[in-house]
Structures are given as structure tokens and as C-alpha cells.
Design goal:
543 residues; Rossmann fold; binds magnesium ion; oxidoreductase; malate dehydrogenase (decarboxylating) (NAD+) activity; metal-binding; alpha/beta; NAD binding; binds nicotinamide-adenine-dinucleotide; globular; 14 strands; metal ion binding; binds (2S)-2-hydroxybutanedioic acid
Length: 543
């Protein structure tokens, strides 16, 4: 009996392997009637054929005509495109972006199959709507836009209850969680519970770009209060109207949530997103050896920036071995800036075997200017990157960005400050004089308003020969003689879906620095010499 079972099982699994690539497997559902139409995971709207309407108790609950998936798709795209036609002036841009987000969001709430199909097929056009920059606008207006909840909300008031709450989530399995406490949403500051838009957008990218199962993802908001007074005073604010928890109280709340998640889904991967710097570093240190997690703003960003920096050396006509000789000024000593610096330094150490050389070529500024060893009360995470003041003649603690660019003459200016317009005309013109044959500008802060400069400004003031990348998307710039100034989107979206998918498929227990370094190098390696020569550092979003 045993061997017969084994024989049948082996036959079945072989035929299953053959057929699974050809025939879609049936989806067995317990629900019937209206419950199906209200479940976006299985709803097909008017697409249910008559046989299914009979079997599932849907007859009479839908208009009689069956509208095929393809017709529904075309109808959706037509309404979406008609919104574009209504844009008459620049000032309409954010209204139109929000209108586009609304119709995508309604589709998401109604019919996930169609939603993800249109998203995957039109990722280049739709990413700026469901993700950066429009998602920032959505978070800022969340209370007004809220119609239906998505994901889970745990709050400081739920202490002691989280273990049972986690079982309220309807899916049996969860592979990927994106978690935020809303304390630093893009460059928009503390948005409290409104920050849930970010985990939702990130997980949409996981499905669209990495093919994760949309029924096994979970966006989570951990609402520990907000220090944004405007929100606390708003009677319609949907989150806790109290100051943020601090210290042990804060950490024990996160601990309780993590314990609940890992009890129900021990293999779930957790991406920490948009935590203010102190908690971003603290939670990474606390959990990274204990379960499969990473901090996207520190580690994902670093990988994408490193790939861009490696591409830049090539674009300057130098060999990759020359990377350690690049002078790089990083503006912003927060979770993202420090993450980039530590990964870039690690890369140099790997190339040269010398930690001293590694630290020499990088210069770090925060809101108080250049950071040197003379700086008082420096955040411990920034200490390894503090400069020796005597390194370059006249370089002093607190030097302004303009002074630093003039004295250091960098090859790369990389902004993660969250301050729009920081790379002003004077700074960009000083970079032009740096002597680098092809200076690079990474204006990585999000959303668009917070970019350190626009693409047009960069090509205008720093010269047509630059390499340009920004965190939020900009159009390519038309230069003289019919030439094009290429705009790269240096955004962690190029890595986090792959990091999560890789961790999931490999069954990794933790995510190591070496894995992230490998991911960055892999991203850099996709680019051909022809792309790089044009100043293209990353694959197209469609790819
Ligand atoms: N492109 C991407 O993939 C990506 C990834 C992560 C973060 N970001 C963006 O980077 C920005 C910063 O994120 P973070 O998590 O590091 O924030 P953070 O608050 O931790 O750090 C901001 C840093 O900028 C410094 N700063 C502020 N004003 C400055 C000024 N005038 N001059 C120089 N430095 C100044 C602050 O002192 C601080 O060190 C945000 O806008 C975020 O959207 C982009
Ligand atoms: O969300 C993004 O677009 C990138 C990054 O994670 C950020 O915080 O800005
Ligand atoms: Mg982020």
C-alpha cells in the first residue's frame, strides 16, 4: 500500500510539474454569492461566466452581460487615460495624480486580479502613482481619502493584545510584511497613522516587480502616537492623538508586535520602512540577527546608491578599480545617508583591503555643515565618517555645502537630506568647476518637492555632461544639438522587491551585509557599456 501511494504520488507530482506550466490551477473557494463579489482577492466583477455564476450562487447578482477580462482591462485603461487628457495646466498635476491614484485604489479594493494585471503591464506609468511621489501626497491627505482599511493597524493601546490580534488577519500565510511607525515618511516628516500608504505602495511593488503572491503580503502600521501637532489637533485624524512613545515603552511595543508576527508566521520577512533615524538603527541592530528582516531606508537605499556609484565610475571612463579614488560628498547624515556611506566604505575596503583609504574619500554633511572629528554631540552612527579637519587645506567643521564643494572638488554629490533645492545654482556651478570630467549628481530625497535639485537645474548649471539621478522620477532633459540628458531614478525600489524575493526563495534565516552587497553589484552589472556611456545607470523600470 505504502509503495503504491508513493508510486502514485511520484507520478502525480511529475504530471503536476508538466501541467502546472500549461494549465492554470483551479482556485478553490468556500465563499458563495455576494461574499464573492465583495472579496477583491477572488472577485471578477462582470467577468464571471454563466457557468460560474450558477455554481457560485451569483446568478441575478450581476448584470446579464459577461464582460471579459480583456474588455474590463480596456475599459479601465480608457478611464485612466481620459484623466490625462483633462490635465490642462501645471497646477492640475497633483489633482490629476490623486484622481489616478483614486481609480487605481478603487480597482485594488474591488478586483485585485485586474489591478495587478494593469499595474504589471503599465509599471512605468503607474509606479509614480501607487508609489513615489504620489504616495506621499496620499499619505498627507490620508484621513480625507480613507474609504476602506488595507493591511493591519497595531497601536500603543493594543499592548497585551497583539498576539491575539495577529490572528484576525484573514490569510493563512504571510510571506512579506512592510512595517512602518510613520515617523519619517519620505521627506515629509512625522505623518503618524497616515504613513500606512508607504507599506501599501511598497508591497504593490513586491507583487508587480517580484511576483509575490498578493494574498501573502501584509502592510502594517504600528501607531505609537505622533509628534505632529497638526495631526494631534485634527479631530478627524485617524490615529492615536498622543505624543509618540519613547525609550523602553517604544521598544517593548515593537517587540510585542514582532513576537506576535513570528508566532503566527515564523518565516515571514519583515521590511522596516520610514522609521526616524534613531529607531531605524536601533531596531536593525536589535533584530537583524534574530529573524529575516532589513531596513529598506538604510540598506535598500545603500545598495541602489552603490550600484549607481559603480556605474558612475564607468561613465567617467574609469575602470571599476578606480572606485576608491572617487571623491564623494554625501549631504544628509540620517538613516539613508549613513547607510549609503557604510556600504560604500565596505565596498572600498573589499577592493583595497584598507579601511584608512576607504574613509578618506567620503565627506559627510548634515544640517550643521561638514562633519569633522571636532563636532560635539555627534550621533554615534556618524562618528566613523567624521573627517580629519586638516585633510584638505582650509577644511573646517561646519563648512557649508558650497564651501565643501569648492574645497573638495568632488566627483559625486549625493543628497539624502530631505531638503528641496539644497543643490542650488551656486553649488551646481561649483561642481561644474570641480575638474571631474563627468561629475555626478544624485538628488535622492523624496518626494519630488524635496529633491535637492531638479534634472533641468542640474543639466543647466552643472553642465550637459553630468550623470544625473534622483529618488523621484523626472523626465529626461532635452539638451542642445538634439542630445538627451538621461535621468536615472536612484530609488530603493530597484532592490527591495528582489531582496525580499531572494530571502523568501532561499529560505534565508537572516539578511546579511554580504547579500546586500551582492545585490548592489548584481544591479550594477546589468548595465552595458553603451548604456553607461549615455549616463544610464539603472535598467529601465519596464525591465
Ligand atoms: N531615493 C531613495 O531610495 C531614498 C531612500 C531613503 C531615503 N530617501 C530620502 O532621503 C531623505 C532623508 O531620509 P533619512 O531617512 O536619511 O532622513 P533623516 O531625517 O534620518 O536624515 C536627514 C539628514 O539630513 C540632514 N539635513 C537636514 N537639513 C540639511 C541641510 N540643510 N543640509 C545638509 N543636511 C541636512 C539632517 O541633519 C539629517 O542628518 C528623505 O527625503 C527620504 O525620502 C530616499
Ligand atoms: O519610498 C521611496 O520612494 C524611497 C525611500 O524609501 C524613501 O523613504 O524615500
Ligand atoms: Mg523609505
Amino acid at each position: 500500500m505504502w509503495s503504491l501511494t508513493k508510486f502514485v504520488a511520484s507520478r502525480l507530482s511529475r504530471s503536476r510539474r508538466f501541467f502546472s506550466s500549461v494549465i492554470p490551477r483551479p482556485c478553490i473557494i468556500q465563499k458563495r454569492g455576494a461574499d464573492i463579489l465583495h472579496d477583491p482577492w477572488i472577485n471578477k466583477d462582470t467577468g464571471f461566466p454563466l457557468t460560474e455564476r450558477n455554481r457560485l450562487g451569483l446568478r441575478g447578482l450581476l448584470p446579464p452581460r459577461v464582460i471579459s477580462f480583456e474588455q474590463q482591462y480596456a475599459r479601465f485603461m480608457e478611464s485612466y487615460r481620459s484623466l490625462e487628457k483633462n490635465t490642462v495646466s501645471e497646477s492640475d498635476t497633483s489633482h490629476v495624480a490623486l484622481a489616478k491614484w483614486r481609480i487605481l485604489n478603487r480597482l485594488h479594493d474591488r478586483n485585485e486580479t485586474l489591478y495587478f494585471r494593469v499595474l504589471i503591464d503599465n509599471i512605468k506609468d503607474f509606479a509614480p502613482i501607487i508609489y513615489t511621489p504620489t504616495v506621499g501626497l496620499v499619505c498627507q491627505n490620508y484621513s480625507g481619502l480613507f474609504r476602506r482599511p488595507r493591511g493591519m493597524y497595531f497601536s500603543a493601546k493594543d499592548k497585551g493584545e497583539m498576539m491575539s490580534m495577529i490572528y484576525n488577519w484573514p490569510a493563512q500565510m504571510v510571506d512579506m510584511i512592510v512595517l512602518t511607525d510613520g515617523s519619517r515618511i519620505l521627506g515629509l516628516g512625522d505623518l503618524g497613522v497616515h504613513g500606512i500608504g508607504i507599506p501599501i505602495g511598497k508591497l504593490d511593488m513586491y507583487v508587480a516587480a517580484a511576483g509575490l503572491n498578493p494574498q501573502r503580503i501584509l502592510p502594517v502600521m504600528l501607531d505609537v502616537g505622533t509628534n505632529n501637532l497638526k495631526l494631534i489637533e485634527d479631530p478627524l485624524y485617524l490615529g492615536l492623538r498622543q505624543p509618540r512613545l519613547e525609550g523602553e515603552e517604544y521598544l517593548s511595543t515593537i517587540d510585542e508586535f514582532i513576537e506576535a508576527v513570528l508566532t503566527r508566521w515564523p518565516k515571514a520577512i519583515v521590511q522596516f520602512e520610514d522609521f526616524q533615524m534613531k529607531w531605524a538603527f536601533e531596531t536593525l541592530k536589535r533584530y537583524r540577527e534574530r529573524f529575516c528582516m532589513f531596513n529598506d531606508d538604510i540598506q535598500g537605499t545603500a545598495g541602489v546608491a552603490l550600484a549607481g556609484l559603480l556605474g558612475t565610475v564607468r561613465a567617467q571612463g574609469r575602470s571599476l578599480d578606480d572606485f576608491p579614488n572617487q571623491k564623494i560628498v554625501v549631504v544628509g547624515a540620517g538613516s539613508a545617508g549613513l547607510g549609503v556611506l557604510s556600504m560604500a566604505v565596505q565596498a572600498v575596503v573589499r577592493m583595497t583591503g584598507n579601511a584608512e583609504t576607504a574613509a578618506q574619500k567620503f565627506f559627510l554633511l548634515d544640517k550643521d555643515g561638514l562633519i569633522t572629528k571636532e563636532r560635539k554631540n555627534l550621533d554615534p552612527a556618524a562618528v566613523p565618517f567624521a573627517k580629519d579637519p586638516g585633510l584638505i587645506a582650509g577644511l573646517r567643521d561646519g563648512d557649508s555645502l558650497l564651501e565643501v564643494v569648492k574645497k573638495v572638488k568632488p566627483d559625486v554629490l549625493l543628497g539624502l537630506s530631505g531638503v528641496g533645492g539644497l543643490f542650488n545654482e551656486e553649488v551646481l556651478k561649483a561642481l561644474r568647476e570641480s575638474g571631474s570630467n563627468r561629475p555626478a549628481i544624485f538628488a535622492m530625497s523624496n518626494p519630488t518637492m524635496n529633491a535637492e535639485c531638479t534634472a533641468v537645474e542640474a543639466f543647466k548649471h552643472a553642465g550637459e555632461n553630468i550623470v544625473f539621478a534622483s529618488g523621484s522620477p523626472f523626465e529626461n532633459v532635452q539638451l542642445g544639438n538634439g542630445k538627451v540628458g538621461y535621468v536615472n531614478q536612484a530609488n530603493n525600489m530597484y532592490l527591495f522587491p528582489g531582496i525580499g524575493l531572494g530571502a523568501l526563495l532561499s529560505g534565508a534565516c537572516i539578511i546579511t551585509d554580504d547579500m546586500l552587497q551582492a545585490a548592489a553589484e548584481c544591479l550594477a552589472s546589468y548595465m552595458t557599456d553603451q548604456d553607461i556611456e549615455k549616463g544610464i545607470l539603472y535598467p529601465s523600470i519596464n525591465r
